[in-house]
């Protein structure tokens, strides 16, 4: 969705997250520039458009209840993946008390 349809569907993001919405080089106020850079760095950029086709419609509550669900009843063999397991050790201190 784009334009008014996106606004009506609440499918919009904060203005500075859009590519090209803010010209950082044109800003003269250093505080404003740092604030906008911080928002962009911390929250990222909104892509122009990921999908061109509409999403498939959602199932109604009745359809969702009637739809058979797949349940995996097989048990997981932990020993099968032993070579892939990794151990980690992290030590930290909080209020002078070592955390292990």
TrEMBL record:
Transmembrane segments: none annotated. Keywords: WD repeat. The keyword Lipid metabolism does not apply. PROSITE patterns: BEACH. PANTHER family: BEIGE/BEACH-RELATED (PTHR13743), NEUROBEACHIN-LIKE PROTEIN 1 (PTHR13743:SF115). It comes from the Eukaryota. InterPro entries: BEACH_dom, BEACH_dom_sf, BEACH_Domain. It comes from Macaca mulatta (Rhesus macaque). The keyword Cytoplasm does not apply. This is Neurobeachin-like protein 1. Residues 1-58 form the BEACH domain. Pfam families: Beach (PF02138).
